[in-house]
Amino acid sequence: MNIVMINGSARKGNTLTAINVFKKGLANCHEIDIINPDQLNIAPCKGCGACQCHQGCVDQDDTNSTINKIVAADMIVFASPVYWWGISAQLKLIIDKCYCRGLQLKGKKVGVIIVGGSPTDNIQYQLIKQQFQCMAQYLSWNVLFHQSYFANSRDDLSNNKQALSELEKLGQQLD
């Protein structure tokens, strides 16, 4: 399976830990591509609608090559820290730019990993889950998992044995 993981964090902290542990659980038979939006040159969506008349975004940046990877994937894993009760701007940027090829994302397998500085019963996790549920319904996504983790300090997740085991098992279950 071709899996694209979008890392919504610019830091090398808990979200990256979650991605790496999930990836560890995946067998070597999967093709895995990790997209790091903070390392790309992608302009925000202008809402110009020109992409609806062309094959992709008209911006001459990393948008089209990035979206091509996402469209080609069998599965998309969205991973983000919580920023102000929502996903990070880095992840939202990629999601917004998917508009140019949105209908080609229909029926994808999807996973969501969210890491925040509040306990997981906080409203912020529910708000993010609802946002992904709306996207999943619109695009007929098969959401395989939606996991939220509490990690306040930079290395909290790497010290949480239960969370690490759960993330690795999630990856193993995709085989």
How would you characterize this protein structure?
With 175 residues, the protein is an alpha/beta fold. It has helices at 14-25, 63-72, 89-97, 123-139, 161-172; strands spanning 2-7, 31-35, 75-81, 109-116, 142-150. The mean pLDDT is 93. Helix 1 crosses helix 5. The longest helix has 17 residues, at 123-139. The protein is built from five helices and five strands. The protein has a five-stranded parallel sheet with strand order 2-1-3-4-5, sandwiched between helices. Helix content is 34%, strand content 20%. It is globular.
Summarize the structure.
The protein is built from five helices and five strands. It is α/β, with parallel strands linked by helices.
SSE blueprint and pairings:
Layout: E1 2-7, H1 14-25, E2 31-35, H2 63-72, E3 75-81, H3 89-97, E4 109-116, H4 123-139, E5 142-150, H5 161-172
Parallel strand pairs: 1-2, 1-3, 3-4, 4-5
Index terms:
five-stranded parallel sheet, alpha/beta, 5 strands
Radius of gyration: 16 Å
Low-pLDDT parts are none
What would the principal axes of the Cα set say about the shape?
Answer: globular
Distance between the termini: 9 Å
How many DSSP-defined strands? 5
Sketch the major β-sheet. 5 strands, parallel
Quaternary state reads single chain
Counting H and I runs of at least 4 residues, what is the number of helices?
Answer: 5
- Kindly report the average pLDDT value: 93
Spatial order of strands in the largest sheet: 2-1-3-4-5
Strand content: 15-25%
Fraction of helical residues: 25-40%
Give the structural class. Answer: alpha/beta
Helix and strand string, N-terminal first?
Answer: EHEHEHEHEH
